[in-house]
Write a structure and sequence with these properties.
Layout lengths: L14 H29 L7 H4 L5 H7 L5 E5 L17 H5 L6 E10 L7 H8 L9 E4 L4 E4 L1 E7 L7 E2 L11 E10 L3 E11 L4 E7 L3 E3 L2 E4 L4 E9 L3 E10 L3 H6 L2 H21 L3
Antiparallel strand pairs: 1-2, 2-13, 3-4, 5-6, 5-7, 7-8, 8-9, 9-12, 10-11, 12-13
Helix pairs in contact: 5-7
Length: 286
């Protein structure tokens, strides 16, 4: 006679054991989610790019100049080939931005500032751009005067395009905004009060700063450049070797004005002063 009192199978789990198993499964799922979502952000974060990744094929002699104190800056005629062209996959296209206005005159510049301690980041670059007052008194060499002359006698952040009320430089930021627009009045030694719009935008690797005049630039009684006809685009990125400052400027002026003023020299000098301002700000960062 068969006995029904013996059970050869494992006994059923209790309700408490089911809860314990369910809890471990939930913890495992949350851990898996955490690792799959957050771990790549830390471990798989993009490393700093190198200079050679962005500017391929630049000769060693030119490269040494780029890493020098002043870098390279050159004027470019309308149909002349640009020399400093980033690799197509770099995501950097300043020429495309400048050429929207079809400028008559161009200048391009390339500089890398080696780190003097800590590696800088995009927030350091953004904070350097905030010190508008440091543009005041920056020198350039005047060939007509054969002397070092302050290009901007005054440099002030102002409220807006309509209001020229002066604003102080902001305190150091703790977070990097995606974009920002500021308004600037510069008392130019040659052109008097000049008004610019500075537009900053952050990208995954760097920061772009676009400076455009929002009022006419004049010399004596003549209009040198109409509103929006001068633009300088400066791209800055922390590289493995140092901070990249790659820039391009463009301007449009009539042949009559070009006969009065050396426009290529005027553009290059102002671009050089903007670059020097940023460079010095980065050297004192952190």
């Amino acid at each position: 006679m068969k006995s029904f009192t013996t059970n050869h199978h494992k006994p059923s789990r209790t309700r408490k054991e089911y809860r314990r198993t369910s809890s471990w499964c939930s913890c495992g799922l949350w851990l898996l989610f955490f690792l799959s979502f957050f771990f790549p952000l830390v471990v798989g974060a993009d490393p700093l790019r190198s200079f050679d990744e962005i500017f391929t094929g630049l000769g060693e002699a030119r490269k040494r100049e780029v890493f020098g104190d002043e870098g390279l800056i050159r004027s470019v005629k309308r149909n002349e080939r640009l020399e400093f062209i980033p690799a197509p996959g770099s995501g950097i296209d300043l020429a495309g931005v400048i050429n929207r206005e079809n400028p008559s005159y161009l200048a391009e510049s390339l500089l890398v500032i080696p780190y003097q301690g800590d590696i800088l980041d995009r927030l350091d670059i953004y904070n350097a751009l905030g010190r508008i007052s440091d543009l005041k008194g920056r020198l350039y060499h005047s060939h007509t005067r054969n002397a070092e002359v302050a290009l901007f006698e005054e440099a002030t952040r102002i409220e807006s395009e309509r209001s020229t009320r002066a604003l102080p430089d902001p305190p150091l930021a703790r977070e990097l905004p995606n974009s920002e627009t500021v308004y600037i009045r510069l008392k130019d030694v040659n052109f008097g009060n000049s008004y610019y719009r500075g537009s900053m935008s952050a990208s995954p690797y760097g920061v772009t700063y676009n400076i455009t005049n929002f009022r006419n630039i004049s010399y004596l009684v003549f209009t040198v450049m109409k509103e929006g006809k001068f633009s300088a685009v400066i791209y800055m990125e922390p590289l493995a070797e140092g901070t990249l400052i790659y820039s391009m400027a463009g301007a449009d002026a009539s042949d009559f004005i070009a006969g009065l003023i050396d426009i290529p020299s005027a553009i290059s000098k102002r671009l050089a002063v903007f670059i020097g301002w940023i460079s010095d700000g980065l050297k004192t960062a952190k």
